[in-house]
Amino acid sequence: MPKNQNTFSSLAALRRSLASRAVHAGWRWMQRAGAVTAQNPGRLRFGAIGEGTRLAFPQGTVFGEAWIRMGGHCIIAEQVTLTAGMMPDLDLGPDPVLVLGNGVVLGRGSHVIADARISIGDDTFCGPGVYITSTNHSYDDPHEPVGKQWPRSAPVEIGPGCWLGTGAVILPGAKLGRNVVVAAGAVVRGEVPDHAVVAGAPARIVRRWEPETGWQPPLRTPAPVPIPDGVTSEQLRGLARLAEAE
Questions:
Q1: Is residue 45, in this structure, part of any structural domain at all?
Q2: pLDDT, position 186
Q3: Cross-referenced Gene3D superfamilies, in alphabetical order (predicted)?
Q4: CATH number at residue 147
Q5: Residue 178 class from Cβ within 10 Å (0-12 exposed, 13-18 middle, 19+ buried)?
Q6: Which residues contact 105 (CB under 8 A, 6 or more apart)?
Q7: Any catalytic annotation for residue 73?
Q8: What pLDDT sits at residue 166?
Q9: pLDDT average, residue stretch 240-245
Q10: Rounded CA gap, 77 and 182, in Å?
Q11: Is beta strand 75-76 parallel, antiparallel or unpaired with respect to 111-114?
């Protein structure tokens, strides 16, 4: 290859590299600037947003925010939809419609659609793509398109400490107790007692904890090893780096 062609090829590669770095740097800046917090709410005016709560940029569809209340230290990932009411610009009355407790985590691409009241308890974690709704289509009239029939709504209550796996669906009227585990892809309706594991569509209880008998059926996995007393977060990060380097 002639020398001038080598030079042009090197310059083109350099330009692509610089452009790539600029794009990534710009995107990181937009992610930081576009995040929503109590101190920097942007255009969104939530009924409440607690200290340490952060909605990652880009946000999904958000409306009815005056009737949405979020506690402290919640993590709302990218492209999460949060809506109160069936459409924007409705007067929903004096009471909140969507309530997130402290420390709630909503994974990327999740949807929380609150036409009737939805409450999510403290320290409930949701994986990506979780769908929680208090409204469902009706299909009573066999001659009318389902999408044109008036939907049915019922409140949803999710207790504290729950874990909702990737792609889980929580339907209107569901009531989950404390520390409930919902398996990935499960479709939940009705009541689920405290300390239960549910799976399937429709979801059924596959494991439950009772004070007298413990977990039934018994757990097949070994108990996690507790972190020794006195170990700092910096030491844990150092161990993680060593494991990655091996």
A1: yes
A2: 98
A3: Hexapeptide repeat proteins (2.160.10.10)
A4: 2.160.10.10
A5: middle
A6: 74, 75, 77, 124, 125, 126
A7: no
A8: 97
A9: 75
A10: 19
A11: unpaired
